[in-house]
Sequence to fold (357 residues):
Amino acid sequence: MNAIDPKGKESGDGAAASRDIAEVRAVVVTFVALALFVYLVGFIVLPFVIAGIIAYICTPLLDWLAGRAGLPRPLVAVLLFLLLVGLSGFTVVAAGRHLVAEAGSTVTDLQGTLDHLLHRAADGEPIRVFGRSVDLNGIVRIIGDRIHGWFSRPDRLMLVAGFGFATLVGTFLTVVLLCYFLVSGKSVARGLFWLVPPSRRPLVAQIGKRLDPVLKRYFVGLFVIVIYAVIAAYIGLGAILGIDHAFLLALLTGILETIPIIGSTTAAVIAGLVSLHTATGLSSILAFALYAVLLRLSIDQIVAPLVLGSAANVHPVLIIFCFLTGAALLGIPGVILAVPTALTIKAALATLYGDDG
Fold:
């Protein structure tokens, strides 16, 4: 038998340890560089992220349809793209025509609406707080003046106009990118893979193979959250509060739930304006505020962490931490990419460590 050289074994273990440290260092440097890039480009990367995620989710369906129909994949991709854009446009038109009219009429006569509600809440009598009479007309006038003063400033108007223009451009860019990603998404992925040094490609391929099913389960979890948001919003807005267009508002709430921060805030503002237009008193406003708070708490602190954590096999506390950290560091792109980034890091480290669990 050949004798085992202890020094040779130690040198082999040392080389393996050094190689593992180098791999981990490469992973850390790569993710830090990507995070810095996203931080620097800011909202520019948002349309790419949204379009890329939608294309990634639709790719298995696209491949299945192309194989089942026997048609060229680019043709099926274009047809699927047109279907998605058509459904989105129909939803926006069907919901927006009524909801925008309700919200617009409320904003136009906001002072009159508030005056009417406050006086109905007090039955025409002055409200007394801590033994002092509260001037309802003064409260309404102050609120109206503050809102009018905010919008009358040129810099604020430019801010609103700039945000609206950026939203339109971003939406158009997202639609264009979605078409490209659906048609040639695999070519884009191969191009990104080519950027990886040849010596690292087997490792990256192994990480991707481990990561792909986890990401798919994560996005299925997002779909479950959307369904929950639609059902909970319809129960709250329709069955409990009795607000007009409850189904459209609930559907809009679920769809916008896929866009962190801005989407959920926009849905709450639109629903609030509609409820304000149809409210019968101050109690209706307070009831809607309670509904909005409970819905957000149930989604952000209970349902989302539990569902996403179970789908991605990540602890709910880590899900909450990822969302908050992503929002604080990178804003909306950070919230969208927070959990996928954490899953990617976990898959990379599990591959490096040889953890098959």
Remarks:
- The two ends are 36 Å apart (CA to CA).
